[in-house]
Each structure stands twice: as structure tokens, then as C-alpha cells.
Amino acid sequence: MRSIVLFVGWMLCLSLGMMAQYPVADPSVPHHPFHHGVASGDALSDRVILWTRVTSETSGPIAVQWVVSTTPDLASIVAQGEFVTDASRDYTVKVDAQGLSADTWYYYGFTTSEGSSQVGRTKTIPEAMASVTDFRFALASCANYEGGYFNAYRSIAERNDLQAVFHVGDYTYEYGADIYGNSIEGRTHLPTHETVTLGD
């Protein structure tokens, strides 16, 4: 099963809140142009999928460099490469980082000419039939944006003992504004109707 390390979505974005040692073009925007954070998942014993999205004023293809390191400062690089993204894939980046060691924590990040991403942390799974002494994970679900501030996500992100985070759904695509449960003032679904189209 390739879902042991499943860090899904910008809300979770389980990174260490650190930046790679690269200049950022716009200091007022943290981690510009990677406003959607980073994610990883679908791990095997020798590889893991890395994900991010670029938000840029540039039209046309954008070259994104990625690295995987054994240290948080991304200095001990064990895998690296370049991924070219464009509007046909909504400027998302999806990399299958290979050649990694089993049951090992890694750090990863992305850069473009405009700046650098947060540094994420991920882990490969053990070899088949290897002995595992413990496995700790967090589970999140039913994240109705109107119904709370979700500070639990920060608590999850601040833990260093989790080997996986499973996020199994939310309500943003299922209900319009003020339809499901109580709403907190100032927190309203956009669009206000049920999400139906790609534009929504």
C-alpha cells in the first residue's frame, strides 16, 4: 500500500515551517511563490511522491528545482531534479523521488527563480516484512471551513512523532454557505453555493 505517509492538502501542509537557504523575491509573502505549501505521500521503501504548486505572474512554463535531504537545512542532498510545470497542470508539481532508503526520515523543498518553498518532512516505509516496533499517525476529517478555526492542524504539524497523517475529507465541496451546522462570523464558503463546476 502506497499510502503510509500521506500529507494531503495545504491546510495540513506538514512542514517544519523552515525555508531553504534561498532568497525570496517578495518578503511580504511567506514562501513565495509556493503559497499552497508542500505535501508528500504515496511512499514506498525506496521512494515518495512530493507535491507543491507555483503561484506566479509568469505565463508559460516554469522550471521548479526539488531536493531531498537527510538534514532540515537541505544540505545533505540524496536526490534532486527539475520539474517543468505550466497552465495545463495548473502549475502543480508532482515528483516521484526515487533512490531513497527504507524506513528513513527525509526533508525536501522546491525552488524557482522567484523563491523557495517551506521545507517538508516525509518518511519512506520499511522494507517488505521488516519488523516495525511502532507506528503513530493522526487522522483528520470533516473540515467544514465555516464551523471552526482548526487549530488542531497546527498541533498535528508541531508533532515530531507522527509517521503519517490521513486526511479523509472536508465539506467545502459538499455544501453552500450556512447550510451545514453553525457558522463562525466572517468564515463563509466561497462560492456561497455548492461546489459543482471547475470554476467553483
Describe this structure in words.
The chain is built from 1 helix and 11 strands. It is an all-beta fold and 200 residues long. The longest helix has 6 residues. The two termini are 33 Å apart.
Q: What's the shape?
A: globular
What composes the largest sheet? Answer: 6 strands, antiparallel
Range of strand content: 25-35%
Low-confidence stretches: 1-27
Observed structural traits:
6-stranded antiparallel beta sheet; single chain; 200 residues; mainly beta; 1 helix
Short description:
By secondary structure, the chain is an all-beta fold.
Secondary-structure blueprint of this entry?
Elements: E1 15-19, E2 38-41, E3 47-53, E4 62-69, E5 77-85, E6 92-98, E7 105-112, E8 115-116, E9 118-123, E10 137-140, H1 152-157, E11 164-167
Parallel strand pairs: 10-11
Antiparallel strand pairs: 1-9, 2-3, 3-6, 4-5, 4-7, 7-8, 7-9
